[in-house]
Amino acid sequence: MMMDYGTLRGLIALLILALFIVIVVWSYSKKRKSAFDEAANSIFDESSELKHNDKNNKQETNNNV
Prior knowledge:
Largest sheet: none
Structural class: mainly alpha
Number of helices: 2
Strand content: under 5%
Number of strands: 0
Low-confidence stretches: none
Order of helices and strands: HH
Mean pLDDT: 81
C-alpha cells in the first residue's frame, strides 16, 4: 500500500494538531496550576532577593572611564 504525498501531509497535520491539543490540555490541567503559578511568581521573589543582596553587599565601582 503506497501513500501519496497529500495523505502523508494530512497525517502529519493531524499529528501536529493532536500534539497541540495534548500540550494545551496538559498546561491547563489542575495538577500543573500550582507549579505554573510558582514559576510565574518566582521572578518577583528573585528581584526582592537581589535588592536585599545589593543593600548588604555594596561593591566598589571604578568610575575612571
